[in-house]
C-alpha cells in the first residue's frame, strides 16, 4: 500500500518561508525576554548559536502538527503561542548542536555556515551556553503554553515530552551510542537504534508536542509521534547521504565528516542507492501513519518528502 504523494497544489517553498519567518520573530521575542537578563558571557554565545539560522524543521513540524490536530483559531495570540512552543524545541536542538561540535565530541569547525560556537567563544563558554539553552527551552514552552490558554497539566505534558526526548533515553543516549560506535563494526539494527534516539526522538516529540498543544486525543498524538519517528529516521538517512554527496558551502557544515570520524552510516551499510530507497520508504511510512488516523494535512505530507529530497 503506497502512501499518497504531496498535493501538487501545495506550495511547500512558500510555506517553509512563511513559517521560518514566524519562527524567527518568535525567537527574537524570546531572546529579548529570556536571554537579555543573562550575564553577557552566557548571553553572547546563546544568541550566536540561536541566530545561526538553519532549516528550522523541528519547530515547523510543531506548528504543522498543531494545525493538523485541529489547533488554532486564527487569533494572533494563539499563533504567537504555538510559535513560542515551537522555539522551545529549536532551543533544545541548538543546544545539542553546540555540544555535538565540541572537541570532545565531533570537533567540528562549521555549523549552519558559520564557525561553531566553541570556535568563537571557546569550549567552556560553549558548554555553558548549551546547558543554558535547556532551561530557556522550558521557559519558552511554558510561555507559549500560557498564550495558548493551556492548563498547567497540559503544559507539564509538553515539558515531559520535550525532556524525555532530549534525555538519556532519547537524544543524549543516542549521542553516547554514536560516540561509542566510532571506529567499530555496527550493523543495521545498531545504527537504527542510534538514530531513533539521536535524531528521531526529538523529531517525534516535535509532532507530539504540537498535538498536545492542540488538545488532540490520544490516537492522534500517537499517530503524529509515529509519523515523527519515521520522518526522523528518513531525515538522518538523508543527512548520511548528503555527507557523502553534498558540498560544504551548501550544507553549511563540513562535508565528509562522518567518514573522517569513522562513523557507521546508512550509505556505508546499504550503499547510496539503498540508503535513498530506505529513506523514501520511511517517508512513505510516515504519511501512512497520518492516513491511518484520518489526519488530512498537506503540510506534513510535503514535509515528509522534503526530509528525503532536500539538498542541504
Fold and architecture overview:
The protein has 312 residues and is mainly alpha-helical. Helix content is 73%, strand content 1%. The protein has 14 helices and two strands; from the N terminus they run ααααββαααααααααα. The protein has helices spanning 12-35, 40-50, 57-68, 76-100, 117-121, 123-147, 152-166, 171-181, 188-213, 218-245, 248-251, 257-260, 266-292, 298-309, and strands at residues 110-111, 114-115. Strands 1-2 form a two-stranded antiparallel ribbon. A hairpin with a 2-residue loop joins β1 and β2. α7 packs antiparallel against α9, α10 (218-245) packs antiparallel against α13 (266-292) and α13 packs antiparallel against α14 (298-309). It is globular, with a radius of gyration of 18 Å. It starts with 11 loop residues before the first helix and ends with a helix. Mean pLDDT is 89; it is low at 1-5.
Amino acid at each position: 500500500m503506497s502512501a499518497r504523494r504531496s498535493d501538487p497544489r501545495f506550495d511547500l517553498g512558500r510555506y517553509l518561508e512563511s513559517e521560518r519567518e514566524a519562527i524567527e520573530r518568535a525567537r527574537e521575542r524570546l531572546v529579548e525576554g529570556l536571554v537579555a537578563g543573562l550575564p553577557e558571557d552566557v548571553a553572547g554565545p546563546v544568541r550566536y548559536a540561536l541566530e545561526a539560522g538553519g532549516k528550522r524543521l523541528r519547530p515547523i513540524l510543531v506548528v504543522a502538527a498543531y494545525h493538523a490536530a485541529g489547533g488554532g483559531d486564527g487569533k494572533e495570540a494563539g499563533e504567537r503561542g504555538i510559535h513560542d512552543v515551537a522555539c522551545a524545541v529549536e532551543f533544545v536542538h541548538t543546544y545539542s548542536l553546540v555540544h555535538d561540535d565540541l572537541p570532545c565530541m565531533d570537533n567540528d569547525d562549521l555549523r549552519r555556515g558559520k564557525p561553531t560556537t566553541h570556535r568563537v567563544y571557546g569550549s567552556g563558554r560553549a558548554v555553558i551556553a548549551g546547558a543554558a539553552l535547556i532551561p530557556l527551552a522550558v521557559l519558552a514552552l511554558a510561555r507559549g503554553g500560557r498564550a495558548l490558554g493551556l492548563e498547567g497539566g497540559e503544559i507539564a505534558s509538553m515539558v515531559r515530552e520535550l525532556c524525555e526526548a532530549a534525555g538519556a533515553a532519547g537524544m543524549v543516549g543516542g549521542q553516547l551510542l554514536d560516540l561509542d560506535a566510532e571506529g567499530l563494526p555496527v550493523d543495521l539494527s545498531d545504527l537504527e537504534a542510534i538514530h531513533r534516539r539521536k535524531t528521531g526522538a526529538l523529531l517525534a516529540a516535535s509532532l507530539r508536542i504540537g498535538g498536545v498543544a492542540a488538545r488532540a486525543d490520544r490516537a492522534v498524538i500517537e499517530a503524529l509521534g509515529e509519523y515523527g519517528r519515521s520522518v526522523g529516521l528518513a531525515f538522518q538517512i538523508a543527512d548520511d547521504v548528503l555527507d557523502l554527496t553534498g558540498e560544504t558551502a551548501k550544507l553549511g557544515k563540513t562535508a565528509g565528516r562522518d567518514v573522517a570520524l569513522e562513523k557507521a552510516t546508512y550509505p556505508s551499510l546499504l550503499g547510496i542507492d539503498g540508503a535513498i530507497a530506505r529513506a523514501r520508504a520511511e517517508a512513505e511510512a510516515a504519511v501512512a501513519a497520518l492516513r491511518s488516523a484520518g489526519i488530512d494535512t498537506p503540510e506534513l505530507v510535503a514535509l515528509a518528502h522534503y526530509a528525503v529530497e532536500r539538498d542541504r
